[in-house]
Fold each of these.
Amino acid sequence: MIHTRIKSVAQRLNWYRTKDKTFGLYQGYVFHMGDGNGMKFIFCILKNIDNITIANLQATLELRKSEFKNVNIKLQDRILYLSFEEGIFPSIRRSKFVRALDSLVEIFENLDIPKQDSCFECGAEEDLDYYNYQQMGMLLCDSCSSKMEEKVELSLLEWKSEEKNYLKGSLSAGFAATLISAIWILSSYYSNKVFPGFSLLIPYFVNKGYEWGGGRIGKWTILILALIITFFEGMCLAFIFDKFHNSPDVPLSSLLNGGAISLWVCMISVIWFFFFYKENLPEFYSAEKVN
Ligand SMILES: [Zn+2]
């Protein structure tokens, strides 16, 4: 999701977009712009710049920092990053982004930082187009984009042909879950308490156990992990209810609260696995214009 204010600035600049950012040329330099929690940001990747220019840029930014009111500026690993802090309500005007871009361009030009209106890979100036590689926008020539496409296709094929170790991963995840469940059940048994916090440890250790067993992410992984988590959470809860439902030491309300927390954790972790547990597969495609 890109914030509407960022979208409207990017749209006027005729920029392109990735899933969560916008990017494009501004006076010959490629800038990326987006938003995060309570802030908006602009960054620029300064490739092929020598150390002296980087030091000069750092010094100039330091000298001119009063121009960038309420903006944090960071220059690290050849990425110049500006973050515009804002409160709960978005408050930064379009003009502020444009002023920041204008100041940056002026600084870059004064320091003779080369323009970036050429291929990001080879520097060619013709047949350029905008692409999206791993959610990072870039300008590439036809030949470099074809090479990049081949590279990405090849790594996808490699990933598909890799052994996913479902069995070893599942056994290791099951072992980790057994261990945590045993600790949960034993500590409840001997202390007469429910310890709902253990329900958080089960998904964590199931995930870790799968990794320790060499399990890779494939199309069955989420189902396997979801089943192991549900089974162990259910088994522990069944045991705890069975032990305490008539116990004078544990009031029914604390037993029900503990059970409710565990069920929520179980449900949220399974949903989390379904939506966010993904192999970081390479992605490369033509970028769309912001609309
Ligand atoms: Zn190129």
Amino acid sequence: MEEHKLNNFNNFSTVLHPKQKKHVPYSCNVPSRTILINTLGHCYVCRCISWLPVVVGNVFSFNSFEEILNSPAALAVQQDVSNHQFSKCDVTKCGIMIRDDLQPEDMYSIILDIDNSCNLVCPSCRSEKILITEGPRFKRQQQLANHVQMLINNCDKQMKLSLLPGGEPFVSALTRDIIKNYKHRDNISIQLQTNGLLLKKQLMKNLVFFNDIYLLQISLDAGNKATYERVRPPGKWEDIIENLDFVKEVADLTTQIVSLNFILQRNNIDSLPEFVTICNNYGFRGEISRISDWGITNFHEYDVLNVNHAYYQKALDIVSDSIDNYDKNNLMTVLF
Ligand SMILES: C[S@@+](CC[C@H](N)C(=O)[O-])C[C@H]1O[C@@H](n2cnc3c(N)ncnc32)[C@H](O)[C@@H]1O
Ligand code: SF4
Ligand code: SF4
């Protein structure tokens, strides 16, 4: 099955006036099911802090996920979104302009963004290496991880657990502990996004954790060696390919969904066709998204999907051609 969103591209490039938000025809129940916890222990009720930058409280003030979702600030956001006000929502980015976002009634989505540590320094993400393994900050984050672990252990509700969207789960000492000590629970399924370079080495340490992953997202951001090593330094192409081969072998034995991700930018657009070929060859799902401004210098030079960028039309053509070449038996998502 294929899922093309190109026609909606222009909607996603617009900044909306609050009055226009009222005309968003789609519905969202994300704030009553979702909790994102960041490195400071701040709790948010959407999948992405920049989409809905409202802190509903600090996790240390709460003894259960229910308490977070029923806090006065969370209830106010839920009401605002269910009334289609979207007052604080960046509806041009989150996808609500093109579809409903209705999560299952009895399922929580818990997103742990508690450590930015990583082995790579991708220029789109950061300008210097971040690796926190000791000191007062690390101790605070450890307390945070312990508190969150307690909340998870005390929760019997069905839960999708997503680990570390802002760092590397196989490098962070905190998530490595969570992964190493993980014991199967019937109510938990795991979504893991990773740069993939340590997948084979780390997952072999606890296959129980691996078996509970329902969605494994591997960020590739490239289709060949030169591009990969430019956008994912100091990662090596041979290492990522070795890990993809490993995942292919084990994923064929399980029901896991494997997705290769590509954040489109000036430095990788030319390798998109080869990325699509890689998705086809492995039989993995593909996901292409637009780069966001995470505070990098000269962001506008990277953002080829800005209508004012010199490569804008070329970028659209490459995306369209690449999608046409995608194996239609797999799912390709384009999120602009
Ligand atoms: C921040 S990383 C964290 C997880 C893991 N380290 C990884 O690379 O998959 C999550 C995703 O953000 C993407 N990313 C990096 N820079 C970005 C940017 N400026 N805008 C949007 N996504 C970006 C990465 O390519 C990756 O797919
Ligand atoms: S409308 Fe968008 S930003 Fe607002 S809660 Fe839903 S997904 Fe998040
Ligand atoms: S691997 Fe992920 S967390 Fe690490 S620098 Fe790259 S995008 Fe950021």
